[in-house]
Amino acid sequence: MLVLPGTGKNNEQFRSDDASCRQQTQQQLATLPELDSNGEGQQIYDISYMQCMYGKGHRVPIPRELTYGMKQEWHSPPPPNLPAPPQHTQPTDQH
Predict the structure, then answer these.
(1) Where are the domains of the chain?
(2) Of 5, 28, 47, 80, whose Cβ has the fewest other Cβ atoms within 10 Å?
(3) How much is the pTM?
(4) 26-53: string of b/e by CB count within 10 Å (b at 16+)?
(5) Is 61 buried (19+), middle (13-18) or exposed (0-12) by CB count in 10 A?
(6) Per-residue pLDDT, 89
């Protein structure tokens, strides 16, 4: 599982957080009922570890298989001087 040090985190902080997250994740897996042999345990471990490291401020790329087939689209923000879209009002019925 690839996890990179977060912005402003040094290698010592990264190693300490890595060890802490590995231990926490192992403890969580130990409390689960028996897992199947189809990689379920590894997937749970990976997700739990990524969440822990992300929560400690590290960079965690999301593997393609965890996107659940959703297409990710990136859009740049609009320019700061872009006017708001026009507001359309509904005509009122007056009899």
Answers:
(1) 11-28+38-66
(2) 80
(3) 0.62
(4) eeeeeeeeeeeeeeeeeeebbebbbebb
(5) exposed
(6) 65
**59 secondary structure, DSSP code:** B
Q: Which residue type occupies 88? A: H
**pLDDT at residue 81, as a whole number:** 77
pLDDT the model gives residue 2: 83
Nearest to 48 by CA among 15, 1, 84, 81: 1
Contact between 14 and 5 (Cβ < 8 Å): yes
The answer to whether the CB of 60 falls within 8 A of the CB of 3 is: yes
> Do 58 and 4 meet the contact criterion of CB atoms below 8 Å apart?
yes
**First-to-final CA distance of the chain:** 68
Instruction: Profile the chain (95 residues) by mean pLDDT over runs of 10 residues.
Output: 88 96 92 76 88 92 62 61 71 59
For residue 89, give Cα distances in angstroms to 45, 82, 92, 93, 94.
53, 21, 9, 13, 15
